[in-house]
Amino acid sequence: MSAPTAASAVAASAAALLRELLSDQGRRDPYPVYARLHELGTVVPLPPDGKHAAIVHGHDAVGRVLRDPGFAVLDGDYLDRTSTRWREHLAVQTMQNSVFHAGGDRLARVRRLFGQVFSASRAATLEPVIERIADRLLDELAAAAEHGAVDVMARFALRLPSDVIGEILGVPEPDRAGFPARVKAFDAILELGQRSFRELRAADTAAAELTAYFAALVAERRVRPADDLVSALAADDRLPEPELLANLIVVFNAGFRTTANLIGNGLHLLLQHPDSLAALRADPALAPSCVEEILRFDPPVHFAVRFAVHDTEVDGVPVPEGRTVLILTAAANRDPARFADPDQFDPTRTDNQHYAFSAGPHYCLGAALGRAVGRIALPRLLTRFPRLALAAEPAARHQFMLRGYDRLDLLCGTAS
Ligand code: HEM
Question: In 293-385, where do the E strands start and end?
Fold first, then answer.
């Protein structure tokens, strides 16, 4: 038997690390695996019979692949070549009809339509709205906290972004409570690794309910327009109906679970770093750099997947046409070649160019809004509750997509 080549030895090590990443322990704490990947280089090949051709995790390499037109999101044509069953799943179809899996003219059209609404200048004009909603929710939280520990995820972190995006889209307030469970079921199809049949079925049911909901809302706004995004899009015939509904679903979904996890992950991090928490409480002007560091250090989204549209290579690792690469954006955020002391949470860090919002043509449409919500929510919560403390250590997180706490029980104390 001949000795394995250097490339196949690296591929075997990378495959072992990927298995470790997807294990229970790796899902709980992926950062030690990311650190070992960095020791292997910036890009590592995987064995030819695996799902992906390579893992891309170095900071520069991640940025290059995400911006490279030679790599594309997995669109319908790609899925048709690799799977015969995807059209049976409404949840997968919904994602496919949305901006997330669009390319070319379709991508440009949707991003133009939604882009204005979620621009940085629009996010700035929304700040008073975000502050008003945050203060109302904090009043409710304070009332509930008088009776003991409160789950800040359910009562604040999820509700704030859901109410903000609900206002923008025009989803009436009483309807919003029905979203978190459905959105969670829908989002299960985005997770890294295998999905069970039960998860797929639940995602399809959620997709059917969300589609029916937005179809009724669009029909209603066509008859009685209001000053909101659903009315504007309902009056515009540039998007075919299935694409319009799919994009409303994903924008609503993407708009609130990500931001909720920024708030929840951030709060937990700050409670573990009392000096940083005290500094932010004393000076809310630190909020922008604190939010960036939370997004670098413990982001809600850890990965993206792209396929090679032609034979190519990344940092010397070949990627044949049609093969996918697993892009670990959260690992890039901890690249020791890019960040000093990458495993140190340091909200005073400058030059903090992370990939929490991805990069290139699919760069997050709601980045400005997500940042604004985080920057407003965290200091307000800390100043409102001067004795904030964990009531219980939260259950471990296992997701790479929408990584966050299911619940975060806090003792809020009172301002007496
Ligand atoms: C902290 C909050 C947020 C984080 C961490 C986040 C993260 C991301 C990431 C990583 C992507 C790119 C996925 C890829 O490259 O495949 C993305 C795309 C997207 N995000 Fe966000 N997001 C956040 C907030 C929001 C908000 C508030 C909205 C709603 C307006 C939003 C809407 C979208 C949309 C529509 C896309 C798809 C863009 C495209 O494919 O062209 N996101 N987001």
Answer: 304-308, 312-314, 317-319, 324-327
DSSP class of residue 87 equals G
Q: Is residue 267 part of a domain?
A: yes
301 close to ligand 1 (CB < 6 Angstrom): yes
Calculate how far, in angstroms, residue 98's C-alpha sits from the geometric centre of ligand 1. 12
Compute the distance from residue 187 Cα to the ligand 1 centre, in Å.
Answer: 13
CA distance 21 to 216: 42
pLDDT of residue 414: 60
Give every residue of the chain whose pLDDT is below 70, as ranges: 1-4, 414-416
Q: Kindly state the helix (H) or strand (E) to which residue 151 belongs, with its residue range.
A: strand 150-151
Phi, psi of 347 (to 5 degrees): -65, -5
Residue 374 lies in a domain: yes
The structural domain count of the chain equals 1
For 407, half-sphere exposure in the C-beta direction (CA atoms, 13 angstrom radius) is: 9
> Is there a domain that residue 372 lies in?
yes
The pLDDT tens digits for 153-172 are 999 999 999 999 999 999 99
Please write down the long-range contacts of 344-347, taking CB distance under 8 Å and 24 or more positions apart: 345/269, 345/272, 345/273, 345/276, 345/293, 345/297, 346/276, 346/293, 347/276, 347/279, 347/280, 347/286, 347/289, 347/290, 347/293, 347/294
Domain with 262, as residue range(s), is: 6-411
In CATH, what number is assigned to the domain containing residue 377? 1.10.630.10
Backbone φ and ψ for 343, nearest 5 degrees, come out as: -90, 10
Closest protein CA for atom 7 of ligand 1: 357
Per-residue model confidence (pLDDT) at position 83: 78
- The predicted pLDDT at position 4 comes to 60
CA angle 25, 324, 333 (to 5 degrees): 50
